[in-house]
């Protein structure tokens, strides 16, 4: 029970990596604030997750700044505080640069970068005051090394690394840690959209010979949220089976 007594928010917890992180945190004793885009989704997620522990939830689109502020205020009012934030919500809208539409660029920047800004800013306000907390931003190997057809996505995932390092410098004296996790290719709905031959190539390339499971990322997020990582900040933890070696 490494997170006993902590309140953790995980954005994009309805499926995939966010879902696995929420489950892991619940099993480790945290109260977990699940974030879904709509009320129906929230109800369904709470129902699914309550077998693992103390799950609560709110409808929130991370791009809706006013709603983000309202939800963070509600969390503090109803659950006393916020100790851990995992900025996980993310989307892809792939196209090569010469064909990419402005809407594809804007949509990905809005969710993956502005969404992190919106949530991290509210979390930092809470955590600075109480002089403790951890923020974990989900980046990607694509943010470190680039990827064909993902100029918008790569820009956001590199941007998240820049934000992580800057935030770590700004809030370190307040005893708040900020770290990024850079997953490799993980089996979720996001990667199901990718062609089979690309996924096979990634499997081949990885020294560990497989794609990742959402739980592989959840384990890294558990470490970074736990007291064992109290002297770790501003780092980017690659969890990728060695795919980029
Ligand atoms: P999924 O597509 O499976 O899940 C994404 C989650 O984000 C969903 O719960 C979705 O909610 C939510 N979400 C999307 N947009 C918003 C929004 N505007 N506001 C709130 N929630 C939103 O993705 P993964 O689990 O694969 O990815 C999770 C994170 O990990 C992302 O940041 C992704 O970029 C990153 N990542 C994933 C990798 C992979 O191989 N899968 C590799 C590297 C990084 P809804 O159900 O409403 O759509």
UniProtKB/TrEMBL annotation:
PROSITE patterns for the chain: ADH_SHORT (PS00061)
Record bears the keyword Cytoplasm: no
Pathway(s) of this molecule: Lipid metabolism; fatty acid biosynthesis
Residues bound to NADP(+): 12-15, 88, 153-157, 186
Pfam families: adh_short_C2
Domain Ketoreductase: from-to ranges: 6-184
Keyword entries, A-Z: Fatty acid biosynthesis, Fatty acid metabolism, Lipid biosynthesis, Lipid metabolism, NADP, Oxidoreductase, Steroid metabolism
CDD domains in the cross-refs: BKR_SDR_c
Signal peptide: none
Single GO MF annotation: NAD binding
Enzyme Commission identifier(s): 1.1.1.100
Family: Belongs to the short-chain dehydrogenases/reductases (SDR) family.
NCBIfam families documented for this protein: 3oxo_ACP_reduc, PRK05653.1-3, PRK07231.1, PRK12824.1, PRK12826.1-2
Free-text function comment from the UniProt entry: Catalyzes the NADPH-dependent reduction of beta-ketoacyl-ACP substrates to beta-hydroxyacyl-ACP products, the first reductive step in the elongation cycle of fatty acid biosynthesis.
Subunit-structure text: Homotetramer.
Name of protein: 3-oxoacyl-[acyl-carrier-protein] reductase
Originating organism: Isachenkonia alkalipeptolytica
Annotated gene: fabG
